[in-house]
Amino acid sequence: MLMVPRFRDQEQMPAQICHEMEIKRFRIACGEFIGVSDVDREELEKPGVALVPKGFRYDEGMFAAHARGNSMEPKIAHGTWCLFHTDVVGTRQDRIVLVEDRGETGGERYTLKKYHSLKRYFQDGTWDHEGILLLSLNSQHAPIRLKEDGCYNICGWYVGNVPQIQRVEQPRYQVVPEDE
């Protein structure tokens, strides 16, 4: 017979499920695109893992990154942790998205903006892209118009932000499953 120790609170409180998300090294620009080479080493985040904060729906591949700049204020303040889902499906129109510019030298250049597609509609019911604008929430910042020949990737839906995250220390051992 296997004896499992019980603690006083264990019977009264059900176990809480804690989900983890990746912490990205890069900073997200709330302004023009920036990359790892555009920020001081001290500003780069230590990659790792954090708990998904309470009140946010967990999604496979969820991640967090630090915001830099004020173009998305008042919703997203400089220095806050932005949370993202990677399951980027459906319309992007007027959603806040994390955009990667893969065409610039050095790659891995990111900005956080509201996505707005400009379309030209025809009488037959079809449409054509006139362009894509990345809009700031702060009216003091001009929109960014994506280049037609550019190489961009929408790599995350913005789902919210928090002032702090709770890092999880990675175990220093490997879990080995028992033989059955």
Polypeptide structure, described:
It contains no helices and eleven strands. Strands 1, 2, 3, 4, 5, 6, 7, 8, 9, 10 and 11 form an eleven-stranded mixed sheet that branches. The relative contact order is 0.22. It has one domain (20-168): Umud Fragment, subunit A (Ribbon), CATH 2.10.109. It has strands at residues 20-29, 34-35, 48-51, 63-68, 81-85, 96-101, 109-121, 127-135, 144-145, 152-162, 166-168. The protein is mainly β.
Distance between the termini: 17 Å
The CATH architecture: Ribbon
Structural class label: mainly beta
Annotated CATH homologous superfamily: Umud Fragment, subunit A
- Strand segment count: 11
Beta percentage is 35-45%
Low-confidence stretches: 1-13
What labels would you give this structure?
single chain; about 180 residues; mainly beta; Umud Fragment, subunit A; eleven-stranded mixed beta sheet; 11 strands; about 0% helix; about 40% strand; globular
What is the compact description of this entry?
With 180 residues, the chain is mainly β. It has strands at 20-29, 34-35, 48-51, 63-68, 81-85, 96-101, 109-121, 127-135, 144-145, 152-162, 166-168. 0% of the residues lie in helices and 39% in strands.
What is the secondary structure topology, with strand pairs?
Blueprint: E1 20-29, E2 34-35, E3 48-51, E4 63-68, E5 81-85, E6 96-101, E7 109-121, E8 127-135, E9 144-145, E10 152-162, E11 166-168
